[in-house]
Amino acid sequence: MSGEKRIPMVQFIENEELAIGNEDKDSRRKLSQTSCSSDACFVNPLMSAIRRGKSFKKSFFKETKLEDSDMKETDDLRRNVFHYAVSRPDTLRKLLENAETETSVQEALNQADEEGETPIHRAAVIANIESLKILHEYDNSLMKLKTTIRNRSVLHLAVKSRSVVLVKFVLSKDLDLVNTVDSMSQSPLHYAAGLKQSSALELLISKGGDATITDENGQLPLHIAASKGLKNNVSLLLRENPDFVDVLDKSSRSPLLLASQNNFPTVVSYLLSKNADYEIQDKLGLTAFDWAVSSNFPAVVQVCLDTNVWKE
Predict the structure, then answer these.
(1) How far is CA 31 from CA 53, 91, 305, in A?
(2) Which residues constitute the signal peptide according to the record (predicted)?
């Protein structure tokens, strides 16, 4: 806070008890004796209470003037009170309902932490759908925010959280996010293609997810799935675009080459059954079989040898 002296957390102990309720006296004594030399220890009482995950008494907001608490004040992770409140939906709702200055709240909700995430992004990261709903109800434009690092959308992070329920909710509120890309030109479909569970991938495809988008490496979601050895995802993506079986990335690697390089015999076998071109060479002049032999991947070598194309 410019022009203001920041007060150490230990001096807020008495005020903080309004939010803490009945807490063990010994714990409070230890806290008050803690020496804070780093900037991380300088937070307002509201931040302190929320960071500690304490429950608010009913009288808290009556006895505490929120206008005296700077909603935009951050800790060592550059997070404000809302970044932490998203883990406690009831607290988040009370904060939004009792905040005196809407402008301050809006600024805080648009504030990014050191990971580049605003509070709504944090809600997606921790897969807290209730907090996501609360923030969307408060301001639906928050759903369109991108992280300041990697330029990820809320949908990217929802997919990354592995919560299909969360992904479904985000899509229901903003379907335009389905094909948004991050700073590496990866769409939510790229993220889902690399997950073991196929539910999110299937959902995104059903909602118009574009499997033809290539990232900065020239890779389709299909390349990601093949390189991770995820046969179900490979199958889903090929079902939508069977002609993509031999599409090359910027390193001239096909899905078959990537599966072979990463020692995934099941995916290699599946791609060969879909007539993947086994003669494709990467920039090093190596085929999928060459990679299996040179990398000493006996299972992949055997799959190749057992395939009819090699027998012929």
Answers:
(1) 15, 23, 67
(2) none
